[in-house]
Amino acid sequence: xxxxxxxxxxxxxxxxxxxxxxxxxxxxxxxxxxxxxxxxxxxxxxxxxxxxxxxxxxxxxxxxxxxxxxxxxxxxxxxxxxxxxxxxxxxxxxxxxxxxxxxxxxxxxxxxxxxxxxxxxxxxxxxxxxxxxxxxxxxxxxxxxxxxxxxxxxxxxxxxxxxxxxxxxxxxxxxxxxxxxxxxxxxxxxxxxxxxxxxxxxxxxxxxxxxxxxxxxxxxxxxxxxxxxxxxxxxxxxxxxxxxxxxxxxxxxxxxxxxxxxxxxxxxxxxxxxxxxxxxxxxxxxxxxxxxxxxxxxxxxxxxxxxxxxxxxxxxxxxxxxxxxxxxxxxxxxxxxxxxxxxxxxxxxxxxxxxxxxxxxxxxxxx
Length: 367
Prior knowledge:
Elements lengths: L3 H10 L22 E6 L10 H10 L4 E7 L15 H6 L2 H11 L3 E7 L9 H9 L3 E3 L5 E5 L4 H17 L4 E5 L12 H11 L8 H4 L4 H26 L4 E7 L4 H6 L3 H6 L5 E5 L5 H15 L8 E3 L9 H13 L4 E5 L3 H6 L11
Parallel strand pairs: 1-2, 1-10, 2-3, 3-6, 6-7, 7-8, 9-10
Antiparallel strand pairs: 4-5
Helix pairs in contact: 1-13, 2-4, 6-9, 12-13
């Protein structure tokens, strides 16, 4: 139910009778540009597990244009994958990509399958994680701590990530593939012996004091650029091979909002991806309760991207950093649109947000 407060806000924002398109057409005969209106779904089962039709119908009727469901991790898949272990979700509810795509397309929604890259910390079977550890394929910090993330420089991990994402494009009529965790966990990762060997081979010279020279010494910047290339090469390879398998497919990514901080800390250079045509749209995760901070982030992101690719800023209705009411979500959508963003993506679709957020957004369907 839309309250008097919400209705008043809609009138102030000029949203009561539906949204105008993201940008006015140059000609009265031009086709309006379609605004990207997305919802991330972390569970991979929609708002109602076992009933993708209901989820798709409600989103479509509310005016959304796409859903980004989390269908796979570094070591688990919610569909009958031939590359990754099949998850408990798949065993219980069946092929989630197939069910999602059929329902979404029936109701006019795009499906951009979200993959959590590298991480084995959730959903992956214990035996799979243990095998990755034994084979030396997980990450190590500069102090020798280990973490259950696949090391991006390991050639077998690169092949696994690539094969897992391209498999989706080959098997399903999805509209796109969506990267997440397409990064390192932080600036202190990864410093495994495999990284040392591969970095020395690529740079053509040994590291005198490993890992200190690369962590804080005179080769720090060189090593971080090398880390960035380990991440970027996967984005590039997936885009090339997935689009070959399914022409017209879109590549996108959920990225950290603060740039260039994320390049220095987690080796995520999403501005370079946009400049080099490696992605078709970007969703910076601007999860904050502070509208002024949200404004600053989006304003800078629009300037950095320079219109090369559509920008759909992420709004954290329910995240680890923010909790927003429907009114507050509407406010941040308005901010994004006023700054020239091409749409928005909301986190996270769940039974709670399906009840509280979706019905309160006065979106209208566009041609």
